[in-house]
Design goal:
alpha+beta, 4 helices, 31% strand, globular
Length: 141
């Protein structure tokens, strides 16, 4: 919810939060769990240009630039990205949560948020996301 509060602060009295005002230092304690997407309006070109160390590790990925289309679906990041098209359509943040089996076969509970940030023309130019998960203990026999 810290990211949502920050998005609301950036939005101020307007209807859109401006990308140029976004400062990762304002969410520094959560930044390792965050990612940013450029070119989200063009899914075939969308790139994750920041992938925090924590979400990368939880997803079995290196914290580097990666094409959105190349993110495995059975990862925390894959689940955090699945509402990208919807966020682009509505232009407002979406919070999601659920359960999935990760790339290691573990059952995980997750919560994620995707936040659209706009350019001066009001077009979404950047998505900021954050996610976390908790691995569930294996079922008892």
């Amino acid at each position: 919810m810290r990211l949502m509060s920050y998005w609301l602060e950036l939005r101020g009295q307007g209807s859109r939060a401006l990308a140029e005002r976004f400062d990762p230092k304002a969410v520094a304690e959560f930044w390792p769990h965050c990612f940013t997407i450029e070119n989200a309006e063009q899914p075939e070109l969308a790139m994750i240009d920041h992938l925090g160390e924590a979400i990368a590790m939880e997803s079995g990925l290196a914290p580097r630039t990666i094409a959105v289309a190349k993110v495995p679906e059975d990862t925390l990041l894959g689940h955090a990205l699945h509402l990208t098209a919807e966020v682009m359509k509505v232009g407002y943040p979406i919070v999601d949560s659920g359960e999935f089996s990760d790339f290691q076969g573990r059952r995980c509970l997750y919560r994620s948020i995707l936040l659209p940030l706009s350019n001066e023309r009001g077009e979404t130019s950047l998505l900021v996301g954050g996610a976390g998960c908790r691995v569930l203990p294996p079922p008892r026999s």
